[in-house]
Design a protein that fits this description.
Largest sheet: 5 strands, parallel
Number of strands: 7
Shape: globular
Helix content: 25-40%
Radius of gyration: 16 Å
Order of helices and strands: EHEHEHEHEHEEHH
Strand order of the largest sheet: 4-3-2-1-7
Structural class: alpha/beta
């Protein structure tokens, strides 16, 4: 099983925070500490990044390369080229790196279960098309905005060729069924507790709870 850590913005920000974004924007020192924990761990840890902030390229990417770590970057396709977000050239450069990959986070950072069918199709299909055009390959991974999903969201993603779906459900589950759960790093994340999670998988009871919670969300 793989433990998945998820990051958002890193360092300073020159734009206004979106609603609920501020707690997930961490400083460089905390980010580097997390990477050092991952590098030292004997457990298989995957790193992901949501939103497509410019800090993904300016800060995260060089720190990952320095430590020879891999990551998946889930980009808001509708934000590409806007202030403090990735440019198309940066998205392309990251995706061309064999140790990195690009996935979709939608167009405009909306909670997908709340959208009607037409809005949801736009969020998914337009973002996949734009990212595929930039990366010159099919995009087959998605990071769920706000970690939210239901059976309709999962079905539409799969119908559009997405076979790796990442939530924010926490620590690893018992099965490999989608969506793949991630633990999101925040400003108030206890680093000592995080170190324990990275070094050893959660207990059986916690994993069963995570599995049950994810099953309910995926089937409603």
């Amino acid at each position: 099983m793989t433990f998945i850590l998820n990051f958002h913005g890193i360092g300073d920000i020159d734009r206004d925070y979106e609603d609920g974004e501020a707690p997930y924007w961490i400083d460089e020192a905390r980010f580097q500490e997390c990477l050092d924990m991952v590098q030292a761990s004997s457990q298989n840890v995957l790193l992901t990044f949501d939103d497509g902030n410019a800090s993904d390229y300016q800060i995260a990417y060089p720190e990952l390369k320095k430590r020879k770590l891999s990551a998946v970057f889930f980009v808001l396709a509708g934000k590409i080229g806007e202030k403090d977000y990735l440019t198309a050239q940066q998205v392309q450069e990251i995706d061309r790196d064999a140790d990195m990959a690009i996935g979709t986070h939608g167009m405009d950072h909306q909670p997908w279960p709340d959208l009607d069918n037409d809005e949801l199709m736009r969020e998914i299909t337009q973002s996949l098309h734009r990212l595929s055009s930039i990366c010159d390959r099919p995009i087959t991974a998605a990071g769920l905005p706000f970690g939210r999903y239901d059976s309709r969201v999962l079905n539409i993603l799969r119908q559009n060729g997405v076979n790796a779906i990442y939530s924010s459900d926490g620590s690893e589950k018992l099965t490999v069924a989608a969506p793949l759960p991630r633990f999101s790093i925040r400003q108030d994340t206890d680093m000592r507790s995080l170190g324990r999670m990275i070094d050893s998988p959660p207990g059986l009871i916690q994993r069963i709870k995570n599995e049950l919670r994810a099953w309910i969300k995926a089937n409603r």
